[in-house]
Amino acid sequence: MTLQVEFERVDLPLADTFTISRGSQDVAENVVVRVRDDAADDGDDAVVGVGAAAPSRHYGETAATVEAVLSDLEAAIADVDPFQTRRIEAECERAVHDNPAARAAVSIAVHDLVAKRLGVPLYRSLGLDPSTAPDTSFTIGLDSVDRVREKAAAAADAGYGTLKVKVGTDRDRAVVDAVREGAPDATLRVDANEAWTPKEAVRKAEWLADAGVEFVEQPVPATDPEGLRYVYERSPLPIAVDESCVVPSDVPQIADRADIVTCKLMKCGGVQAARDLFAAARANGLETMLGCMVESNAAISAGAHLAPLCDHVDLDGSLLLADDPYDGPVREGGAIAFADDQPGTGAVER
Length: 350
Ligand SMILES: [Mg+2]
Hints:
Keywords: Isomerase, Magnesium, Metal-binding. With 350 residues, the chain is of the alpha/beta class.
């Protein structure tokens, strides 16, 4: 059996400009990746697994860098048994260490292919119970206070019970108050994307706790681990880390200064790496959250099957798109719902 990798760049317009403390985006550059096995020798039809890369400039990747390494990844896995998914990820990492989104796309496509070959949904081939998947939160990006209030109300009307509010400006209190006004019954969490100083983070965590917020994500820069510890030791709210924890080996270094680890397939490089990261988090007594970039269901669908491993799920990237060419298990309103008769990740072209 030989594996072939095909890819196609897709520029996906967002429903609304998405702004976080670091900047704005109107388009998500994704690269859809298809891995085809060549089972024709057995008299079988070939099976095609689908995945996608959602590269992040913050981690040094673009659609162009993804496209540039996919032929190396194809060469690395061409003769590997796709059922050996851990070896697939190891060969990819050996071939192109610094391109986790490109590797994640291949890993997702191979996992989709294998589950399709087995004729089962991906969660089943991973041994997971789909009924324990938490709903995803929905993200409210930075915007004017009036727009934030409107977006929060619209999200609550659409059925989202948990909103993640992007913060990291001098208007943080007004923004959180506006979200609360727009969605009075929603659970709120905030993500500062590294924007605060340690002292500012502690001060803000105090009034955020009074406002009933659930936890604070990435209050300070990942380059300031001592600042993170300062915040953790003084914050009345639990601290989640995202930018501070990228791969499984980062977990022990943040375990004494965070409560929740955010895993993204595009940071850690694949489905098996994500499982390792979750296991490391659990072993260190931390809670787990699965996040995503702004990405198509071609990518997010794989994450949805890992949701049963998570305490918190933030898989709304496809819900922020104007028009995702793929459908998947993450539903409008936040539920993650799998079709029992749909093998693979459930990412299907619309
Ligand atoms: Mg984050």
